[in-house]
Specification:
The protein has seven helices and 16 strands. The protein is an alpha+beta fold. The protein has a single domain, classed as ATP adenylyltransferase (HIT family, subunit A, 2-Layer Sandwich). An eleven-stranded mixed beta sheet has the order 1-5-6-7-9-8-13-15-12-11-10. Strands 3-4-16 form a three-stranded mixed beta sheet. The chain has a two-stranded antiparallel sheet with strand order 2-14. Strand 3 and strand 4 form a beta hairpin. Helix 3 crosses helix 4. The longest helix is centred in the last third of the chain and has 28 residues. The radius of gyration is 19 Å and the shape is globular. The relative contact order is 0.17. The mean pLDDT is 93.
Length: 336
């Protein structure tokens, strides 16, 4: 029964607003996440044991990270066919009410199994798991302000600079049409932790010195978490109402590359060309991790021959047109 699962309860005093890159003193949230994930791995609950065969930073100023993980393509669950930004939840397809008890790591909050952390059965990286917000409501993969707020709080519960969160929307490489966020530890310094961003409108910046142009919000610009979340959700929800495909990535941030302290949190939001149908999992598909600069490659020949220019062209192609289309329109909305 689920009553045997741990229940993680927290409040604001448990948040870590500043973390150090040089030390990994686990918070209680890090501890329960890593331990339950490792136990699930030992119990062979995953579709494969995580085995990243090689990792490299591609030469060039963008510091793209490429990782060779052929098992993910070979063993992962077949992705759902996504055909619309307003596709309804389908109870007959795989969804997160069908998880086995072994796949559920722990409960967030009150033990009602509504907000939970579960394994991602085909992991990209260490402790790759899913945050399932209001799971029992059977919501489609359309972001809610509640889920965004909760996932920001989970990030702040960590004492690690490397815990990241991300969201693939409908027609933006999401594989399951049931509301979920991804969490994982990515222990590589990434350019988007500190890249320069440009002023746009109050509380929202533009990411333009990068092949995947998009929008960025920083926690340090706001008085509290609620205002940060509310402003970010205005951007995301406008894209949802306009039925424009989008991806969202949340990361710890710092002022410059050699800073020891991560003293900020950034939310990146990309509007992008829609992808419909069943995705070809053997190709390099630009989901949110790829937009952030983290590339999972299944084919060794592709991995060996990959260059920064290849990725620049890929990211530019799926974001440039949509970004230019929405930039002025969104500004009018945000200024109201």
């Amino acid at each position: 029964m689920f009553s045997n699962k741990q229940i993680f309860v927290y409040d604001i005093k448990d948040f870590n607003f500043i973390v150090k890159s040089c030390e990994e003193n686990e918070s209680s949230f890090d501890n329960i996440l890593r331990q339950t994930w490792k136990q699930a791995e030992q119990n062979k609950i995953f579709r494969y044991i995580l085995n990243i065969k090689d990792s490299k930073i591609l030469k060039g100023k963008y510091k793209f990270l490429a990782q060779l993980n052929p098992d993910r393509t070979q063993y992962r669950r077949a992705p759902e066919s996504i055909t619309s930004m307003v596709q309804s939840f389908n109870s007959t397809r795989f969804n997160f009410t069908k998880l086995t008890q072994q796949e559920i790591l722990f409960d967030i909050g009150n033990g009602d199994t509504n907000d939970i952390i579960a394994i991602n059965s085909s992991p990209l990286e260490q402790s790759h798991c899913l945050f399932l917000a209001e799971r029992l409501k059977c919501l489609p993969q359309i972001m809610t302000e509640y889920s965004l707020c909760k996932v920001i709080e989970l990030c702040l519960l960590s004492n690690s600079w490397s815990l990241r969160a991300f969201f693939n929307g409908l027609c933006a490489l999401s594989s399951v049409n049931h509301l979920h966020w991804h969490l994982y530890y990515l222990k590589y310094e990434m350019l988007l932790e500190y890249i320069d961003i440009c002023n746009y409108v109050s509380g929202v910046h533009l990411l333009i010195e990068y092949p995947a142009k998009g929008f960025c919000l920083k926690l340090s610009d706001f008085k509290n978490i609620e205002d940060f979340v509310s402003r970010a959700f205005v951007v995301v929800n406008y894209l949802q109402l306009r039925q424009m495909a989008h991806n969202v990535y949340i990361t710890r941030a710092k002022s410059k590359s050699n800073d020891e302290l991560y003293n900020d949190v950034r939310i990146y939001i990309w509007v992008r060309k829609p992808f419909t149908g069943v995705k070809n999992i053997t190709a390099i598909l630009p989901g949110v991790c790829e937009l952030f600069g983290h590339l999972t490659i299944s084919d060794e020949t592709v991995y060996n021959n990959l260059t920064q220019d290849d990725i620049i062209n890929l990211l530019y192609d799926i974001t440039e047109e949509c970004f230019l289309l929405i930039k002025d329109e969104l500004k009018n909305i945000l200024e109201k």
